[in-house]
Write a structure and sequence with these properties.
CATH architecture: Roll
Helix content: 40-55%
Number of domains: 1
Shape: elongated
CATH class: Alpha Beta
Radius of gyration: 21 Å
Largest sheet: 6 strands, mixed
Strand order of the largest sheet: 2-1-6-5-4-3
Strand content: 35-45%
CATH topology: Nuclear Transport Factor 2, Chain: A
Oligomer: single chain
Order of helices and strands: HHEEHEEEE
Amino acid sequence: MKRILLYPLFVVLLLSCNDNDAIKRKQEEAKQEIIKTEKAFEKLAAEEGLKIAFTHYGASDAVINRNDSIHNGLAAIASFYSRPSNGKIKLSWTPDFTDVSASCDLGYTYGKYVFQLTDSTGKTNEFKGIFHTVWKKQKDGTWRFVWD
């Protein structure tokens, strides 16, 4: 009689372990997708400029925080990055950490960035800092940032 009672418990435990393993695999896949998206985002920024990159990788309701100001939506982000810079801008970054929700539809990264501004005389000013980006999986399966 005891064996009969233990068998369903064993089956439930075995299935829950498999579910946890499946969730962890999906989370790892999602993390890799976000890292790949970050790299493509950085590459586009280097090749085409910040306005194109931030509007391409931003969700329609994306928000950026720059210089203690919030820019909400792609039009506001495009406007921010359309401002004259009085020099050549270069931005590079590397995520040091990536994580995703158990549902694999929301994730975040943080890491270091380097912002360089070369003025008309050729002098380059460099600013280093930490970034934090929140990513949301879109209905089409792509990842877009909702906060940067």
